[in-house]
Amino acid sequence: MAKPILLLTRQLPPAVEARAKRDYDARLRRDDLPFTGAELARAAEGAAGVLCAAGDALDAGTIRLLPDSVRILASFSVGTDHIALDAARARGIAVTNTPDVLTVATAEIAMLLILMCARRAGEGERTLRDRKWTGWAPTQLLGVTLEGKRLGVLGMGRIGRALAGMARGFGMEVHYRNRTRLTPAEEAGAVFHDDDAGFLGAIEVLSMHIPGGADTAGWLDAGRIALLRPGAIVVNTGRGTTVDDAALCAALISGHVRAAGLDVFAGEPAIFEGYHTAPNLTLLPHLGSATTEVRDAMGMRCLDNLDAVLLRGEDPLHRVA
Ligand code: DGY
Fold first, then answer.
1. pTM over 0.85
2. Are residues 131 and 264 in the same domain?
3. Which of 39, 110, 126, 150 has the highest CB neighbour number within 10 Å of its CB?
4. 158 and 261: one domain?
5. Cα–Cα distance for residue pair 231/284, rounded to 1 Å
6. Atom 3 (ligand 1): residue with closest C-alpha?
7. Residue in 233, 242, 261 with CA at minimum distance from that of residue 152
8. What CATH code is carried by the domain that includes residue 169?
9. CA nearest to 36, candidates 59, 11, 67
């Protein structure tokens, strides 16, 4: 029997492409740039499945253009804000994601940014690269110690809880804001807040782990920034759309926010112009899940979901629509 056609919208790790080629009539990418919606729909002609990724333009218009042959979109991501889930549901196309496998790696990037912000590592590195270091000095580049500080985790899902565990190792006290309160075992002593003002006013470091989409757009706006304690640190490894960029820049310039660390941006790969010059800001190019082990595991998870639907006629394990 002919193998089902599978479109891979991006270049993927070798082991993932090898398995895709073994089990499918796989259409691989070599130029590795996201397709436009129309290009993606054309490339999917005759395909039963699409292995897509964050950054692909799978809005409602693109989903309407997909050929009838497409039965599943397996996203190489845990976030699915790049996919119009309702439009996929309306066409009977299953959508899956890759939870769990990137939890620790993404929490590591959040912890890295927290450390870089607290200890001014980005500024220090730039000082050396710019040949401006004049030698050790007692008052040079003083940061803040994390031990004893209160970390506020916004969105206490898998990644937020992994970060909480790491932060406890640094002697931080964990507070969290979440749609629902966790069980005592999941909380592991973290303090739950059921309102923004109480949460933001209690913490010294805010780490954001909420999904993108209309409900969370611009969550960290000027009003909520004003509720933070003067000198707070802000880190975002969730989705860039959750931050009002102009408001965060203004708070960095005024010093109300001591430092910020961002791994995600609205409109990636472009970033808010003010971020190029804002003080005390560490920028990373969406590295949350970027380890060899994790990217292999994400690809295998996509293929597990594709196999369930296309090779065995079963429900996929990680269905989001
Ligand atoms: C995700 O999985 O949603 C990441 O942000 C992209 O790898």
1. yes
2. yes
3. 110
4. yes
5. 22
6. 79
7. 233
8. 3.40.50.720
9. 59
- State the number of CA atoms in the 13 A half-sphere of 175 facing the CB: 19
- 320 occurs within a structural domain: no
Residue with tokens 């112009």: 273
Does an H or E element contain 301, and which? helix 292-306
Pocket test for ligand 1, best of 77, 101, 241 (most atoms within 8 A of CB): 77
- The residues, ordered by sequence, that sit 6+ positions from 172 with a Cβ below 8 Å of its Cβ are 146, 147, 148, 149, 150, 151, 205
In a domain, 318, yes or no: no
Residues with active-site annotation: 239, 268, 286
Other CB atoms within a 10 A radius of the CB of residue 179 amount to 8
Residue 90 sits in the same domain as residue 161 = no
Q: Same structural domain for residues 267 and 122?
A: yes
Dump pLDDT digits (tens) for 269-314: 999 999 999 999 999 999 999 999 999 999 999 999 999 999 999 9
| Amino acid at residue number 47 | A
Number of separate domains in the chain:
2
Distance between CA atoms of 266 and 281, rounded to whole angstroms? 16
103 φ, ψ (degrees, to nearest 5): -60, -55
pLDDT in tens, 164-221: 999 999 999 999 999 999 999 999 999 999 999 999 999 999 999 999 999 999 999 9
212 C-alpha vs ligand 1 centroid, how far in Å? 11
**Cβ count within 10 A of residue 138:** 5
Domain region containing 65 = 5-101+291-311
Pair of tokens at residue 167:
């932060």
Does residue 278 sit within a domain? yes
Q: Are residues 126 and 227 both part of a single domain?
A: yes
